[in-house]
User: What shape does this take?
Amino acid sequence: MTVPVKIPRAWAVLLILALNACGTQPAQLHQRQFLLFGTLVDISIWSADKKKAENAIAQITADLEKMHHEWHAWHDSPLTRLNKALAAGQPGTVPPPMIPLLQKSIALSDASDGLFNPAIGKLINVWGFQQDDAPNSTPPDAARIHALVTQQPTMQDLTLAQDQITSRNPHAQLDFGAIAKGYAVDLAIEKLRTLGIHNAIINAGGNLRAIGTHGDRPWRIGIRNPRGPGVLASIEARGDESMLTSGDYERFFEYQGKRYHHIIDPRTGYPARGLASVTASVTVIYPDAATADAASTALFVAGPPRWRDIAKKMDIQYIMIVDDKGNVTMTPAMAERVRFELKPAPTVSIVALP
Ligand code: AMP
Ligand code: MG
Assistant: This one.
């Protein structure tokens, strides 16, 4: 015999809510790390839905692998095939997904006064930074560098008409190394959103974009110490922001006591050094990661004489520059947000933009 039990309506609602709460997983961090773009890629998603997060991670991993292949600057790829056509003075076919990357690169190269110049692939190659194993161990011959600089390939040499590209300079050779990671991160974040993920970080070797929050607190992002282990400083991300760093520690060799790294000054053909001080890293915060990536490279090349000028032209407000002695130069906007983690804190100069 069953006895009907009368539950008051308000209680019933409460009971259902309580049962639902038991069935839902608490939000947690879902992470995956893998090697791509010559660096460690880290995907972090904050979500209560494990299945959704894991599906999103699988999809963007596949997307990133595809981009890595399409834009590869020295393996057999759509980009190397395009470069071969340009070197032969012929039009090259640009695969449709590469068109916006190319257009963005042309615009950002222009905005940076050519200091971000993805047409200097030949120079990057001659320094040994287009190879899977360690770079060269000695600088290339000075005459060879001089010859490549004199050829002056620029993004303005290129003309894009639909999916066909021509170059009036056969020495232009595309290398998207200074923007591809940022652009890939932008596309991956866009994809995450379409998959219903709104709290995440995608980090490609210190080049990252963060959206949403980590539960009830903002994402806190570390900036690597360019001359030692650990974190130099940290910054809280505000909603949707990208933070990218160009560093002389990523790919380099030392010869006769001097460091030769992978950020090349297109004006000299040599690794960018700075003047009064030697630049070790440049960190930039900007809404989209592709712009921040191109800008961090351009500001590194610009160095002390010109970085404020180029920042203004590229509309970058948040900048931190670390020299090889560990001294920090920041814009006032950046200084407001940085928390130093390194003890003792470094010497800091705050320099306003013009
Ligand atoms: P990043 O770490 O973003 O500064 O990019 C460095 C990579 O960009 C190098 O490994 C090269 O492939 C490429 N690169 C080096 N110098 C330049 C430059 N001045 N403009 C554009 N790309 C560059
Ligand atoms: Mg860059």
